[in-house]
Amino acid sequence: MTSYLKLAAKNILRHRTRSLLTMLGIAASVGVLFAVLSFNKGFTEGLAVELERTGLHFMIVPSGCAHEVAALVLHGAVIPKFLDTGVMEHVEGTAGIDLATPILVAQLPDQQRGKIDLIYGIEMNVLEAIKPGWEITGTIPRHEHEVLLGYEVAQHDNLQPGDHFSSPAAGVDLIVAGIVGYSGSQDDAFVYLPIQTAQNLLGYPQSATAIGVKVDDPTRIGAITESLTSTVPGIQIVTMGEVMNSVSNLAAAARALSLAIVLIAILISAVGVMNSILMAVFERTQEIGMMRAVGASRWDIFRIILNETTILALVGGVVGIVLSTLGARLIEAFVRSVMPFVPSGDLIRFDPIVALGSVAFIFVIGLCAGIYPAVKASKINPVEAIKG
């Protein structure tokens, strides 16, 4: 077996440029396949982590689109509909609810600082319960005019606990009570205020974009949501599982298109491998005839040619995995720029199972692409080949 591989490798090195271009084509297609599969896995895992970070089991919003709810939950999108916070009485009076808090999300332009603040109004007494993983420098706001800054906001304005936070609203003096430690998520980009302060600052009294709810027993979510829907008109309840499905569905079309493009690229690579090996077979017709004349069997010729295709496929596949891993951050940056929502964190990571699966797939494709040239070579008549 080793002698066949050595001979196949020598044959590949005879035409270095052609072999290199063939391998690069394989590497490109395998690299993209690995990146897409890794991203899909990382997207699902990252989305689950993002939802877990919310600390809530479901959201109550005005009747509308579930995609808007997903955007609100995961990265604070502004929804142009509001709930009357009077709904809180019905919510808090429902059996099985551990905590509930109105949430008011809005954008607040500040011309003095030349930026737009993302305001997140919430009842501060529930923050520790729904954000247990937060590391806060300072304290959670306890007074009306205190704010809690996300990491990015504090870094941008170079603020520390006790500093004044400028506000575009005249006569409102906000004090930084605390700063949320870096989380690598959308939490870093918000200015967190007590819900009443946010309502007054934004001019939306008694209004909320959503009500976040955490239940005592997650197994009873279905019964609780059904009870709320039947007693409170004009609301929509979306669980975190439904949010996950909603966002996953939004990304599914893009992932399906990516996989289709990858499969086309792999087929083109397979044709390239077949063409390269066929050219080598035609160029070595007399050589193969001599090998047959001195005792090489058709099976020997078949194995040598098939080994050449598998070497091209395997080397190209490994190179593709390496290149994709090294360029993961660039690929991820591009995907984030074109997709409406991507979970935070590194989504494209080296995964041995995904890498082995990608290489195994291209190995099979290489074998299939090499069968025809191998059969063609094994059928060469030694007498006719020597005569030329």
State the gist of this model.
This is ABC transporter permease. By secondary structure, the chain is α+β, with helices and mostly antiparallel strands.
Structure explained in plain terms:
A hairpin with a 4-residue loop joins strand 3 and strand 4. Helix 1 (2-14) packs across helix 11, helix 2 (16-54) runs antiparallel to helix 13 and helix 9 (240-283) runs parallel beside helix 13 (352-378). With 388 residues, the chain is α+β, with helices and mostly antiparallel strands. The longest helix has 44 residues, at 240-283. The chain has helices spanning 2-14, 16-54, 66-75, 87-92, 127-130, 151-157, 195-202, 221-231, 240-283, 285-293, 298-326, 328-338, 352-378, 382-387; strands at residues 58-62, 83-84, 97-110, 115-122, 136-138, 146-149, 164-165, 174-180, 190-194, 207-208, 210-215, 235-239. Strands 1, 3, 4, 5, 6, 7, 8, 9, 11 and 12 form a 10-stranded mixed sheet that branches. It has a two-stranded antiparallel sheet with strand order 2-10. It is 58% helix and 16% strand. It folds into 2 domains: 2-49 and 247-387, no CATH class; 64-233, no CATH class. The chain has 14 helices and 12 strands.
